[in-house]
Amino acid sequence: MKKIRYSITLLFLILVISIVGNLVISALALFFDIYILHLQQNKPSFLTQIVFLVKALALLIFVCGVFTLIVNLKLFVTGDFFHLRLISTYRKVGFLFLFSGTLGLVISVISIFFMMNYGDIDNQIYLNLDSKGLYILLMILGLFFRLFANVLNKGNVIQQENNLTI
Predict the structure, then answer these.
(1) pLDDT of the residue at 55
(2) What is the pTM assigned to this prediction?
(3) Which three-class secondary structure state does DSSP give residue 32?
(4) Would you call 21 helix, strand, or coil by DSSP?
């Protein structure tokens, strides 16, 4: 079980490094005119910078949700599936994933219309416009975790009733 936990922790660290690295590279280009990727573009508009900030917020909320899930992984490993803290964790992670996915998808769709209408297409590489599939997946995972929390909560109620009848 320790190997799995270490693997999950390692993958989480890789996820954090890749997301933070992407955000740093994009922020340097969009706000400070430092082009690490040597993809110098036109000066980004203020709305492009706002779109980037909202997308960065969505990604950081996702990382927070994954971190919450990993921290409470010990409860899952113990086998106490109906523990109220575990149920609360799944509900919270579901909300964070759903919120992050919804926020990212909405801002992605808005940014597409913005790019088409105002022509700030040069800076789209820093906005990762192809991430709509990830946001939809996050929404699905968020709904799944919310549903799973409800199922475990129902199981907790049944287990408590069963313990009272014995």
Answers:
(1) 86
(2) 0.78
(3) helix
(4) helix
